[in-house]
């Protein structure tokens, strides 16, 4: 049979090495940082040290081709690696496989010119710089890039850009941005109005206004003002009017990469729930012996199982070169909600302890809340899923094409 959910020995060995690396090199650093309340000044040298350890261990840049210094692993293997790495907050950073840089690397690899790859992709792969992806704007719906108001007009060999962006993750400290701006007026298709530019963040006219404070604090999600910023024509990434196409091509696999990392967080929460249930005694028995707690564990286990299957199947489709939009959309919606549900149940089982900051659960929940609107709100994904299901039924009289095109 062609269906096989096991990894070959080579990739099992890689995953074992990742687990050991996270346990010995990354988790102790994260525990120390949490205990001592590290700030940026302490985190940066620690990350540099962990990254050198990852290089020495042969675990650097697992998602990129070998010619770019990576391990050349596909999305299926990355699903397991990313889930494991995300069990510790800085795990993906140690491997240089963190958002938004991971998605930007793939984008540059497939859309960049040779010169752009040398100028931007190589230092990103080598871990010498960081980047951001500047698309979302406060004045228009982030889920509809055709409404983008940031505007670029051509002036000789340069483009002059004016606009306003926000929630640009990783902007503070980024060496460059992939910026989406409107360059075409009244195109035949609304999706052909935008273009993408590579922008050095020290370019005059690029201004970080603030790090937007969220319900879980400041996490380098910045507001950006762009005023008469001049960018040479050679910095356009892809062709004119291809910004929407590029953005969607980038965000599909990036959504799935988020899901991979969320699985690691959800599994951590479920394991904490089990640990608490097996050790907390109340009203004559352990929590693990009470039906109400068992149901929480059962529901969480089923949701995590579903999440893993959906992510593995979507990753398989990407590796195969097949259409994956619908499967990634369904995975993104399901995994985001499973993450929230599982962490919330874990907090309930821990009681007041879970609500406190004595465990990581409270911070995990406030971080998890963004997952249900980042990279497409739940409602947008539900709308697209329904549209594809109705279209499949109208075209074929069956919903199989909308439910994974599986042989059952």
From TrEMBL:
Keywords: FAD, Flavoprotein, Oxidoreductase. Residues 242-389 form the Acyl-CoA dehydrogenase/oxidase C-terminal domain. Its cofactor is FAD. Residues 9-127 form the Acyl-CoA dehydrogenase/oxidase N-terminal domain. Pfam families: Acyl-CoA_dh_1, Acyl-CoA_dh_M, Acyl-CoA_dh_N. GO terms for molecular function: acyl-CoA dehydrogenase activity; flavin adenine dinucleotide binding. One of its GO terms (cellular component) is cytoplasm. Residues 132-228 form the Acyl-CoA oxidase/dehydrogenase middle domain. One of its GO terms (biological process) is fatty acid beta-oxidation using acyl-CoA dehydrogenase. Homodimer. Belongs to the acyl-CoA dehydrogenase family. PANTHER family: ACYL-COA DEHYDROGENASE FAMILY MEMBER 11, MEDIUM-CHAIN SPECIFIC ACYL-COA DEHYDROGENASE, MITOCHONDRIAL-RELATED. This is Acyl-CoA dehydrogenase. It comes from Actinomarinicola tropica. The lineage of its organism: Bacteria, Bacillati, Actinomycetota, Acidimicrobiia, Acidimicrobiales.
